[in-house]
Amino acid sequence: MQSNKGQSHGMRIVGDQGTADASARTGATEPLSSPASTPTSTTGIVPGSAEPHETSTDPTAGAPAALAHEASAGPQKAPQTTDNTDSLDPNAVLTDADRAQGATSPNTPTLGDVLLAVEELWPASLAEPWDEVGPVVGRPECPVTRIMFAVDPTLEVIADAISRGTQLLITHHPLLLKPVNSVAATGFKGEAVHLLIESGCALVTAHTNADSALGGVSDVIADALGVIDTTPLVPSKDGLPEEGIGRVGMLPEPMKLGDFAARVFETMPSVAGGVRVAGDAAGIVQKIAVCGGAGDSLFDAVRDSEADVYVTADLRHHPASEAREASLNGKPYLIDVSHFASEWLWLPAAAKALANVLDEMGHEVEIEVSTVNSDPWDFILTP
Ligand SMILES: [Zn+2]
What we know:
The chain is α/β, with parallel strands linked by helices. Helices cover 30% and strands 18% of the residues. The chain has helices at 2-11, 22-26, 96-101, 111-121, 155-163, 188-198, 208-212, 217-224, 257-267, 299-305, 317-325, 339-344, 346-360; strands spanning 44-46, 134-137, 146-150, 168-171, 202-205, 228-235, 244-256, 276-278, 284-294, 309-313, 333-337, 366-369. The longest helix is centred in the C-terminal third of the chain and has 15 residues, at 346-360.
């Protein structure tokens, strides 16, 4: 199974790229906001974007190019409405009335069709053994006219998706990672399952398979930070040579750690926790290791890679402290970012990649990125 999947997904010709290069299917190497990179398809994308960190009142000032979408509405703590009229093909945009009626066209895919595209992009075989990926809620035969990507299947995210007529929510994090004995609506997970089913909204997880895949979370982070010539920190056993957990690559030019940390800060969606750095701000970095989400299990691989700095999330005291103690000449430096923010970066690229594949399959669907900020932290106190 793995060889078939690896081969087919490596040979996939996607969208308007006209190439068998697997990276083309993901859109990860494209500037996310470039008009030229948007698929010329009947599949409409309603991109989200990140808020810049600067205190400027201009919503796009300082925003990284990759995230400076026109209808700027990055992750927010409260649900908000975005303008859907920037979809690429006006004919593909459903009206509110259409949405209310669940209007479909002859080219509307079923959930089963979309799952084929999801498998094409993020093969389940790439998931870690402990993970649970794929469909969680939904009937394969049901039509899907509107898809939303989000990091977390929180109740706020689900409610927002449902309010926007979403028929398929694709989240990075699993709702039901651990086995459950009940989905009664007496707890938040059961409530989530009920809300989804009662609203006719399917739920699909693309987690460590999306981390590992070419164009996955760490590829997008590396790309957004200007890191090139990347390879996996831990290559996948079941995928392409370029696939696996984490990435390490080079900046075209060396730069000071302080300046690189500022780049990280400006690239990530704005969250309360900001960015933490361990190391000499004047130290020079060029070889960069990244891992979206919690990456403190990869320190050995990071050291083996001889990276100058490691960008990841959820760094706890002891792994971070011991990594600093074990460092050579202070390296690798550490940059600790928000788990949510690091993975949110992937969503626009994932939406674009899925749009490309569905378009290639002849399907029409609207895809958007959740603008709900599901980072659990609300404020921070610093000295
Ligand atoms: Zn995560």
